[in-house]
Amino acid sequence: MTPIRQGRNHSAALASAMCALAVTGTVLTGCAEDPNEGTNGVGRLPAEKIQAKTRSVAESAGAVRVHGNVVSGERTYALDMRLKDDGGEGSVTSEGATFRLLRVGEQLFLKADAEFWSHGAGQGGDGEADAAAASKLGGKFVKVPQGDPSYKKFSGFTDKGVLLDGLLTLHGKLATDGHDEQAGIRTIRISGDKGSGGTLEVSLEGKPYPLRLERAGGAGTLTFSAWGQDFSLKEPEKNETVDYGRQLPAS
């Protein structure tokens, strides 16, 4: 005898058996359960339209929290960022070093300990000067000059439009890939090239926000939450800030 698989398949088999046993003329509710019943309806759409809708509502949302990891080049970045249209704040960890980012309008600040800044000490420069700079910058919000190479690199982590545009794209042929839940919220899953092009969980409750992303090629997994929940952004106090005034030390 072949054993019945547990989990969802077992539940489906049990439901089918109950329906088969229903007495003629008797209505047995739940026999044709629709996983999209009572939802926002996107689960009934083709995968391409689901992706278009979720991108649209994500772009129009005033704010979002992004949490997880992103692989870029040879580095893995662990993110915990809150973003909105005019800036963002949060933490980034890479290669064991954690730093905070804060962007208000065009002004970008980076805060880290002295050890973070001292990583560049002695690399073709004045070791004593670099150590002194690290001591000065450690624990402060350092204003990142817009001409510094770090500005473009790190400001992308604080830019809601840029970050979401780069993340919410699945590659290859799109298809729906079943139903699931994220943090107690029912979702529809869409994938590119049967998962190799990435997988996205889209909310079936309320607006069809993206809730979880597995990036193509194992390039990271991210969760999205707090959609539309505003938060305050303000520049740090002057006594918390250092304006280095030129290209930042290598780190």
What is this structure, in a nutshell?
The protein is of the alpha+beta class and 251 residues long. The protein has helices spanning 8-20, 47-60, 114-118, 127-137, 149-155, 160-167, and strands at residues 63-72, 75-84, 87-94, 97-104, 107-111, 141-143, 174-182, 185-192, 199-203, 210-214, 220-225, 241-243. It contains 6 helices and 12 strands.
Detailed description of the structure:
Keywords: Signal. It comes from Streptomyces coeruleofuscus. This is Lipoprotein. Residues 1-22 form the signal peptide. There is one protein chain. The protein is of the alpha+beta class and 251 residues long. 23% of the residues lie in helices and 32% in strands. The chain has six helices and twelve strands. It has helices spanning 8-20, 47-60, 114-118, 127-137, 149-155, 160-167; strands spanning 63-72, 75-84, 87-94, 97-104, 107-111, 141-143, 174-182, 185-192, 199-203, 210-214, 220-225, 241-243. It has a twelve-stranded mixed sheet, with helices on one face. Strand 10 (210-214) and strand 11 (220-225) form a beta hairpin. The longest helix is centred in the N-terminal third of the chain and has 14 residues, at 47-60. The chain starts with 7 loop residues before the first helix and ends in an 8-residue tail after the last strand. Mean pLDDT is 84; it is low at 1-30.
